[in-house]
């Protein structure tokens, strides 16, 4: 994923760079507009290797890091290996394509379609296996008309949706859980309603061992065994009357301490557009007072959490006649998770947006108009002197992620990395099609035409092919 929105001549089309991030559609938007709010939570995170390539030599670079473990999928196989492709272990070999892999600690859960053709709306079974390849067993088996879909793993519990009947037909799915050993199933939140008027729980994420979900226009949290249900927000229940102003939830954006960061929008009225202006809040997942993170009328776009501080973009939006949104400018703000101590990290007429953080140093990209280069700068999260890092071409040079203590860049000449102080620029690969997939300790793993490769993020060793055909899941 690139930490950079699509900008052209001042026009910012808000797009979803990460396919795992929840997508939101506002009523009244022409076609489908997905608001990812520019920056999503930061990515910080085979068969034997069949090739390698050396990075550009850099003097004074430390020895290459020890190999890390990586989990990857090749069609019907779930595999674990080192980042150089050695030490290959088959965790699972299935009759159909392995889908929807979820890793939590040493537990790996995944889905397998019951129909080996994997075409159409096919019932899926959920299996679990340990990361060392042991204790593989079936947890959930769908049996029409009951459709069970894997959602997450929290501790010793597997979360799933339970739907009875055809997809897209009432009743909608409920949220349920079952122990990893396949026993003690239970409902965490059931769909309620009748006819075409139904309310269904929408799982957001796990925070501090609790399942956070949206239901009927409010957030709730519950332990995975179904106990200790807590209502986190209090908004009027759906449905709303015509032209009634109400609050819509836009999803959980991050976590600060024991609190969930979420975005809301007031509909239908707004000084910007009929869809409203997003605002950021934080609420403890065990219940408690809600903290307003931003201030003023501007759009608030989550960036990243550093310690107890939430960093976000504060943007002045303007709606165009074709319903696109353009930003006149954006500044980066930093605030404590309780809403106190708000400070501006930037104050310029350009568009500033968060690329990530290395320690307490914020990495910010400044987009200028008129075809001039963008500026990559560093600023302490608590405010302070700005450090110039690197100029970037606005059209083809992007920050993909933060890996270990390095800024990973995608350029036409391949992947590069940079230190937080702007030094140590090193070319990691020489193929412009390389696309970052994820991190495994100090290694950046990437896709190259369907092959999975990994390279030390500091350039201290060559890139090595993990597998000629595989999809990165997670670094272990």
How does the SSE layout of this entry go?
Layout: E1 6-8, E2 11-13, E3 52-53, E4 69-74, E5 77-82, E6 89-93, E7 99-104, E8 107-113, E9 124-130, E10 137-141, E11 146-154, E12 157-164, E13 174-179, E14 186-189, E15 192-194, E16 197-199, E17 202-207, E18 210-215, E19 218-222, E20 230-231, E21 246-256, E22 259-267, E23 279-284, E24 291-292, E25 299-306, E26 309-319, E27 325-336, E28 343-344, E29 351-358, E30 361-367, E31 374-380, E32 387-392, E33 398-403, E34 406-411, E35 414-419, E36 426-427, E37 435-440, E38 443-448, E39 451-456, E40 463-467, E41 471-475
Antiparallel strand pairs: 1-2, 3-40, 4-5, 4-41, 5-6, 7-8, 8-9, 9-10, 11-12, 12-13, 13-14, 15-16, 17-18, 18-19, 19-20, 21-22, 22-23, 23-24, 25-26, 26-27, 27-28, 29-30, 30-31, 31-32, 33-34, 34-35, 35-36, 37-38, 38-39, 39-40
Count of helices? 0
Helix-residue proportion: under 10%
Summed over residues and divided by their number, the pLDDT gives a mean of 84
Could you say which structural class the secondary elements and strand pairing correspond to? mainly beta
Short structural summary:
The protein is mainly beta and 476 residues long.
What can you tell me about this protein's structure?
This protein is mainly β and 476 residues long. Helix content is 0%, strand content 50%. It contains no helices and 41 strands. It has a five-stranded antiparallel β-sheet, with no helix packed on it. It is globular. The two termini are 20 Å apart. Mean pLDDT is 84; it is low at 4-49 and 269-274.
């Amino acid at each position: 994923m690139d930490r950079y929105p699509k900008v052209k001549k001042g026009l910012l089309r808000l797009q979803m760079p990460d396919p795992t991030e929840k997508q939101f559609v506002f009523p009244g938007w022409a076609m489908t507009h997905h608001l990812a709010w520019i920056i999503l939570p930061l990515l910080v995170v085979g068969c034997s290797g069949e090739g390698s390539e050396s990075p550009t030599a850099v003097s004074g670079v430390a020895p290459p890091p020890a190999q890390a473990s990586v989990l990857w999928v090749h069609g019907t196989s779930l595999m674990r290996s080192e980042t150089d492709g050695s030490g290959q272990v088959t965790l699972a070999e299935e009759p159909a394509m392995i889908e929807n892999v979820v890793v939590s600690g040493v537990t790996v859960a995944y889905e397998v379609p019951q129909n080996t053709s994997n075409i159409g709306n096919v019932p899926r079974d959920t299996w679990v296996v340990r990361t060392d390849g042991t204790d593989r067993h079936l947890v959930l088996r769908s049996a029409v008309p009951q459709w069970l879909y894997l959602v997450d793993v929290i501790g010793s519990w597997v979360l799933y949706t339970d739907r009875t009947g055809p997809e897209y037909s009432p009743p909608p799915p409920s949220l349920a859980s079952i122990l990893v050993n396949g026993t003690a199933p239970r409902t965490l939140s059931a769909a309620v309603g009748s006819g075409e008027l139904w309310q269904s729980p929408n799982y957001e994420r796990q925070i501090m061992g609790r399942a956070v979900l949206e239901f009927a226009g409010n957030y709730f949290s519950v332990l995975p065994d179904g106990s200790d249900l807590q209502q986190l927000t209090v908004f009027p229940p759906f449905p709303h009357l015509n032209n009634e102003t109400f609050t819509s939830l836009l999803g959980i954006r991050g976590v600060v301490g024991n609190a969930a960061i979420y975005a809301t929008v007031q509909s239908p009225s707004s000084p910007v557009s009929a869809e409203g202006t997003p605002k950021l809040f934080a609420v403890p997942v065990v219940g408690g007072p809600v903290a307003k993170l931003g201030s003023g009328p501007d759009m608030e776009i989550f960036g990243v959490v550093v310690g107890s501080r939430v960093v976000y973009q504060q943007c002045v939006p303007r709606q165009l006649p074709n319903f696109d949104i353009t930003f006149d400018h954006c500044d980066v703000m930093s605030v404590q998770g309780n809403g106190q101590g708000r400070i501006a990290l930037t104050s310029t007429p350009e568009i500033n947006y968060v690329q990530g953080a290395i320690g307490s140093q914020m990495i910010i990209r400044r987009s200028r108009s008129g075809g001039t280069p963008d500026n990559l700068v560093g600023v302490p999260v608590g405010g302070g002197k700005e450090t110039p890092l690197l100029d970037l071409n606005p059209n083809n040079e992007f920050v993909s992620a933060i890996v270990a203590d390095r800024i990973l860049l995608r350029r036409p000449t391949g992947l590069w990395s940079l230190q937080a102080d702007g030094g140590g620029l090193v070319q990691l690969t020489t193929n412009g099609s390389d696309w970052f997939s994820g991190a495994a300790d100090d290694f950046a793993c990437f896709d190259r035409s369907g092959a999975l490769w990994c390279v030390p993020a500091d350039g201290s060793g060559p890139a090595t092919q993990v597998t000629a055909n595989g999809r990165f899941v997670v670094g272990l």
